[in-house]
Amino acid sequence: MKIISYFKKEQWSPYVAGAGLGLVGILGVFLADTLLGASGAFENIAGSIGQAIAPAAFDNMYFNFVMPPGLSNGVVLLIGTFFGGTLGALSAGTFKFRTNDNEQWNKVMGKKTWKRWLLLFIGAVIVEYGAGIAGGCTSGLAISGGMLLAPAAFVFIAGMFMSGIVVARIIYGNKY
Amino acid sequence: MTIVIILLVGVAFGFLLNKSGMTKYNVIVNAFRFTDMSVLKFMLTALMVAMSGLYLLKMLGLVVFPGIPATYLAGNLIGGLIFGMGMALAGF
User: Fold this and answer.
1) A159/B79 CB distance under 8 A
2) Contact between B38 and A14 using a beta-carbon 8 Å cutoff
3) Closest Cβ–Cβ partner in A29, A73, A126 for B63
4) Is the pLDDT higher at A55 or at B88?
5) DSSP string, B27-67
6) A64 vs chain B: nearest CA distance in angstroms?
7) A90, A99, A147, A172: which to substitute to probe chain B, counting the most B Cβ within 10 Å?
8) What is the pLDDT of residues A122-140, one digit of tens each?
């Protein structure tokens, strides 16, 4: 009974969740020979849409060989991730469609929903662009690469924190 | 069968991300302000468990590592810098 009630809590200790993620990563490699990752899946989807709309523009080396368009393992993983998050929110009772709910954001930048969505969109474009250059996002490169001890992962984490700290300083100014 | 396992791995991944709070703006941004260390605790615990487990399995000869991400020093670093900008802005 205690385990069930632990599942229903909204926020787990990061240590427990981290240990769980480590186990999941090991199982992924062991059972299905696949690594975690999210940004690769988005690039596959973008490649599919791009090839349908404007084949000439998307016919360069990146989209043909490095990130082939279509349904790859990464896309299946992404679909699973989406449902997993939904499951997590449902089990804690926090599932609802929200447009602008975060208190800290509202304190810093005001309550306008369009502002949040605009910065979210811009931030997401930057994130995916950076992930394309680096060869992965946090889950694909930092965690999956890190657990295989690839040096690329640690260089990526260093870069991520460097610029993240600078930008957070800029945004938060003297409320830092 | 492999596809089903991949799907389940994804479900578990998303579930843990949600439960650990990594999907909230304040958790991610506060990591960069050094007030909320959950991101580092989460990532490093996962790395420790996964590293030890994987290399143990490799020593026992039970797994072969799939493609290790290639190391391009400039590419990874610049990509990481750009990535951090977006992460601090959007919070995901």
Assistant:
1) yes
2) yes
3) A29
4) B88
5) HHHHHHTTS-THHHHHHHHHHHHHHHHHHHHHHTT-----P
6) 18
7) A147
8) 888 888 777 777 766 776 6
Residues A173, A170: Cα–Cα separation, whole Å: 5
Distance separating alpha carbons of residues A69 and A40, to the nearest angstrom: 10
Q: Which of A35, A74, A144 is nearest to B47 (CA)?
A: A144
Dist CA B71 CA B66 (whole Å): 15
Nearest to B50 by CA among B33, B63, B38: B63
With contacts defined as CB-CB under 8 Å, which chain B residues touch A133? 75, 78-79, 82
- ipTM comes to 0.78
Q: What angle do CA A42, B31, A106 make, to 5 degrees?
A: 80
Q: Which residue of B has its CA nearest to A143?
A: B47
Q: For residue B43, give the nearest of A40, A157, A129 by alpha carbon.
A: A157
Ranges of each domain in chain B: 2-67
Nearest by CB to B19, from A17, A124, A165: name it.
Answer: A17
The span from the CA of A45 to the CA of A112, in Å, is: 31
Instruction: Choose between A41 and B59: higher pLDDT.
Output: B59
Tens of pLDDT, residues A97-129: 665 566 666 666 666 777 777 878 888 888 877
- In this prediction, residue A132 carries a pLDDT of 73
Task: Identify the closest residue of chain A to B22 by CA–CA distance.
Answer: A14
- What pTM does this model have? 0.75
